[in-house]
């Protein structure tokens, strides 16, 4: 007999006699982004009770475990923090709404809503997921916002506008790569520059956008300067 073979055999035999089993109980379900599948999948949220087993039969409770999230497709288990990641559908909607909010904020700060700015904004909003967006619709929305809030065109970034930007961008920023966060800021910068150099109000709005996207102040300054250079 080889050295150690006896001990290994006894350990294997003991494992077949004694063990631990978890019985899972579903407590909820929904849809989430499964990291293993790489897409949106249904899930079950489950809690478990662990028991010692003797010859495969449960005999003594060992306590509770979980909760966990089980993918309905691949059956892998994840911690409940997996539900913090938005589904693909939700992420697309968040990105679309963020671009739309930034465009309206920059147009409101611009003070003139020039045709070139409106068209640049409409192109960005259509690309983000509003295919029917027109410059006339954006102009009407900017007018409505000014009327509802009493905001004056071209004024600095008022607290209400800053709150709107943070509400749209704060939930999105953790799920965007740095290049994606920079792209949103650059879109806003191009809208502001479509009718001429940045106004102080536009620059303040764009600085607020950068902060909401968790970009460093020096990176915001670099990107705003880069947007002024023709590509």
What does this structure look like?
The protein is α+β, with helices and mostly antiparallel strands. Strand 1 (18-34) and strand 2 form a beta hairpin. A four-stranded antiparallel beta sheet has the order 1-2-3-4. It is elongated, with a radius of gyration of 27 Å. The chain contains eight helices and four strands.
Topology:
Blueprint: H1 5-17, E1 18-34, E2 39-54, E3 57-71, E4 77-78, H2 88-110, H3 115-128, H4 135-149, H5 159-169, H6 178-193, H7 200-212, H8 217-227
Antiparallel strand pairs: 1-2, 2-3, 3-4
Report helical residue fraction.
Answer: 40-55%
Number of helices: 8
The overall average pLDDT, rounded, is 86
Number of strands: 4
In N-to-C order, the SSE pattern is HEEEEHHHHHHH
Largest sheet features? 4 strands, antiparallel
- Cα distance spanning the termini: 76 Å
Output the radius of gyration: 27 Å
Q: Walk across the major sheet and give the strand order.
A: 1-2-3-4
User: What global shape is seen?
Assistant: elongated
Low-confidence stretches: none
- How much strand content do the residues show? 15-25%
Structural class: alpha+beta
Which labels suit this protein?
single chain; 50% helix; 231 residues; elongated; alpha+beta
Question: Can I get a quick summary?
Answer:
Helices cover 50% and strands 22% of the residues.
């Amino acid at each position: 007999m080889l050295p150690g073979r006896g001990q290994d055999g006894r350990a294997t035999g003991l494992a077949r006699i004694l063990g631990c089993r978890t019985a899972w109980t579903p407590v909820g379900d929904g849809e989430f982004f499964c990291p293993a599948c790489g897409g949106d999948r249904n899930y079950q949220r489950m809690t478990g009770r662990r028991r010692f087993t003797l010859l495969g039969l449960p005999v003594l409770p060992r306590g509770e475990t979980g909760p966990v999230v089980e993918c309905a497709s691949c059956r892998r288990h994840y911690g409940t923090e997996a539900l913090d990641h938005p589904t693909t559908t939700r992420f697309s909607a968040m990105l679309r709404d963020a671009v739309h909010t930034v465009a309206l904020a920059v147009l409101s700060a611009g003070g003139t809503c020039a045709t070139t700015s409106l068209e640049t904004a409409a192109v960005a909003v259509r690309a983000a997921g509003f295919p029917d967006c027109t410059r006339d619709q954006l102009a009407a929305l900017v007018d409505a916002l000014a009327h509802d809030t009493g905001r004056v065109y071209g004024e600095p970034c008022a607290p209400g506008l800053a709150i709107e930007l943070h509400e749209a961008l704060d939930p999105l920023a953790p799920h965007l790569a740095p290049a994606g966060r920079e792209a949103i800021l650059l879109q806003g910068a191009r809208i502001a520059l479509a009718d001429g150099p940045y106004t102080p109000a536009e620059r303040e709005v764009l600085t607020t956008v950068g902060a909401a996207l968790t970009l460093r102040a020096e990176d915001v300054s670099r990107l705003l300067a880069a947007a002024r250079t023709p590509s």
